[in-house]
Amino acid sequence: MLTRQLTLSLKKINRIELKPYANLFASVKPFSSRSEGSMTSVEESDVGILCYISNLPGFRGVLKQRYSDFIVNEVDLDGNVVHLTSLEAPSEIAEEKKERLVDLLDKDYAPTIESFRALAGESDAEKLKDFINQIASGVNNRDEFILLSPCSDKSHRAAVHNFFKERLKLFVTDTIDGPDSSSKSVRVRLNSGSHNGSRRNSKKRKERGDKPYDSRGSESWPESTGKFLRFHLYKENKDTQEALGLLGKMLGIQPRSFGFAGTKDKRSVSTQRVTVFKLRAGRLAALNERLIGIKVGDFCHVNDGLVLGQLQGNRFTITLRSVSAETEDIIKASVTALGEKGFINYFGLQRFGSSSIPTHLIGAALLRGEWKAAVSLILDPREGDILFISKDVTRKIREYFKESGDVEGTLRQLPRHLVAERAILHCFRKCPGNYLQALLAIPRTLRMMFVHSYQSYLWNHAASMRVQKYGFHQVVLGDLVYCKEQEAEKEMTSSDLECKDGSSCDTDVDYHLDDISITDLSELRNTSVKVITEEDIVAGKYTIYDIVLPLPGSRIIYPLNDVGEVYHELAKKDDISLKDSLHNTKEFSLTNMTGAYRQVFQKPKDFHWELLNYTDVNKPLAETDWDIIAKSCAASFGRDSDEKEQIKLRSGCRLEANKFKNEVIQSPDTGETNSDREEDIQIEEPIGASKTPESQIALKLSFTLPTSSYATMAIRELLKTSTSVAFHKALN
Question: What segment(s) does the record annotate as region Disordered (predicted)?
């Protein structure tokens, strides 16, 4: 019955799609007429996701019932799929021999201290002198480091660091926060490499303060070893930035020290490459025993760190559960059509957030220069906050601020992951009522996400109109295509998206930024395109898979047919000009952005699928990288007859697997447990149900997409239903 209703609904949708494009977009409401209470979360039709390629009926299927139903493996620039295959750290290259501590202390440091006095002043010079004398005397003083005088001059702190590197290699330095927000202090401690294994001066972390030491530059680094450690990061149900933030905290280094090519969906199991400067693999590998939902491995040293955009795409393994259709042939035909024809390359719902205030509405306010309105959209209560308990708490905090205007009180209550909101309130604390300055206080990656979202909103509507007006069988006059004559290179650019201010971007921001791949925001820039002519159509050299549409900017052209007008018509409804800026803030102006192009139709590569029967709804149906490692270790037990090796394998792999998969243990660094991490939708048997579980069908898909494509849009083409999280939760 449900399948028949879906089929009837699909036929109705197809009839709607045959309307002239002018009618199709007449129902799109301008920004000013939309109210917060009109919806609890963004719907596909709100952001221009309207059409399908095939006319085949959809079928029922549940997306992401378990986060292990959505597996993502990065594909590097050479086309290799990134997997976690080993947790073992390689044998480190022997470090250069260091001078013994006693030999270092035999030197006369008086001239050096006098030079330091000229640089740092009398007080700090005396501190250093006493510290050296203390170490030389062998007294086990309670202080294992000294703090130099607070200083807000970054160049002076750099000079101090360089002084120790060049003239006092006996010590290493790092920087910690000073007594006030505008100053920092240089911390000086004995080089741990000079102890020759002795730990007589070591203290527990809790005894020396919360901030661990970052001493990666303190040791000489072998010239034959690359200065960057590259490793594979495996994570379950965690955002990339969240996982790297945890690793950084445990290692005592800043999260921005890690380099990566792109973020991955939070609600998934993913594996990707990460680099970090001058870190020994053994230190990182040792964390595996303490990590929950994260594993690191496949270590090697390389000369260069990763930057955003250095990937070819992602390999997806997606399992749709509770699949049902009138006939199995409908499923097979739909899957075959997806592999052969592909899907409309829409920006998915992740781009627009999950609350009642979609990110593109905030972007529209920014483009109009309505700073106060934009701040209100970010801070005010929204309907989506009442869907979950944690968000209900957030809603009450938002309501408190709206009613009281109490900045300090709100900051004390507001969760730290709400980075945009906290940045605005921190600015209000210093500059009350300065709305533009408050918006500019938001980390650049995040604040630009709002404007990129509005560009995506226009692109989606233009793509829908292109399909509605001209179909998907051939190119037409006025279409834009890649210029094959010049074989323009696809250049992935991510410069606009990096956290240049060094601020943390590991946020949900109530817009599910964690589900948005940062590289999704970078499209094909500096790519030569051309307008289709009669000669091109006769020659037949271009196909629908060459068609592109622009993301508005100053260096793009629009299609020379009706599709080009859609951009201007929709922007006009929101009182936005695509040609002129309404204010003087360049950052929030389309005329100051280069713009980009994006393929309209996308076909999945290396496409494979299979139908599976299952009875246990909570059992994983696809193997993750960790499953394969655990299985390999288990198989080793049976093959290896050596008792010592059996013990080694058991302690190093089986117990690790049990801890990772089954035990509810607490992380010493985060207090998080496996129970906290588990967000799968558990299906319970109704009272009085049959003891024998009913067999169900699952569809497992494997395919590769380029970085800017959304796998959820491929699934949408199959099911012909919404890809929203709320919709698929309701199916359960």
Answer: 179-223
The H or E element that residue 9 is part of is helix 2-17
- Residues forming a β-bridge with 232: 273, 297
**Token pair listed for 84:** 């976690």
**CA dist., res. 573 & res. 31, Å (int):** 7
What are residue 666's DSSP bridge partners?
A: 673
Distance of CA 532 to the CA centre of its chain: 37
Helix and strand numbers, DSSP H then E, in the chain:
24, 20
The region, left, alpha or beta by phi > 0 then psi within -120 to 50, assigned to residue 107 is beta
Candidates 548, 516, 554; CA nearest to 529 is 548
Please give the Cα distance from 707 to 687 (Å, whole number): 46
With contact defined as beta carbons under 8 Å apart, do 508 and 353 qualify?
Answer: no
Q: How far apart are CA 267 and CA 244, in angstroms?
A: 16
Is the confidence at residue 294, as pLDDT, over 90? yes
pLDDT tens digits along 644-672: 444 343 334 544 444 444 433 334 343 44
Tell which residue, 128, 171, 172, 168, has the closest CA to residue 146. Answer: 128
Contact present, 219 and 256 (Cβ < 8 Å): no
Q: 340, 717 in Cβ contact below 8 A?
A: no
Rounded Cα distance between 326 and 330, Å, is: 7
**To which H or E segment does residue 339 belong?**
helix 328-341
Tokens describing residue 567? 């951009």
SS3 366: helix
Task: Give the Cα separation of 641 and 358 in Å (integer).
Answer: 60
DSSP codes, 679-725: ---PPPPPTT--SSPPPEEEEEEEEEEETT--HHHHHHHHH-S---H
- The residues annotated with a catalytic role in the active site are 265
Q: Is the predicted pLDDT of residue 594 greater than 50, yes or no? A: yes
Reduce the secondary structure of 430-456 to three states and give it as a string: HCCCCHHHHHHCCCHHHHHHHHHHHHH
pLDDT tens for 230-255 read: 999 999 998 888 899 899 989 988 88
Distance CA 224, CA 275 (A): 18
Round to whole Å and give the CA distance between 425 and 432: 9
How many angstroms separate the CA atoms of 559 and 21, rounded? Answer: 15
The Cα–Cα gap between 464 and 346 comes to: 9
Which residue type sits at 551?
A: L
| Residue positions counted in the chain | 732
- Per-residue burial over 629-647, b if 16 or more Cβ lie within 10 Å, else e, is bbeebeebeeeeeeeeeee
Answer yes or no: are the C-beta atoms of 668 and 676 closer than 8 Å.
Answer: no
What sections of 471-541 are H helices per DSSP?
534-539
CB 185 within 8 A of CB 204: no
Q: What is residue 86's three-state secondary structure?
A: coil
Residue 317: closest CA among 70, 79, 617, 85:
70
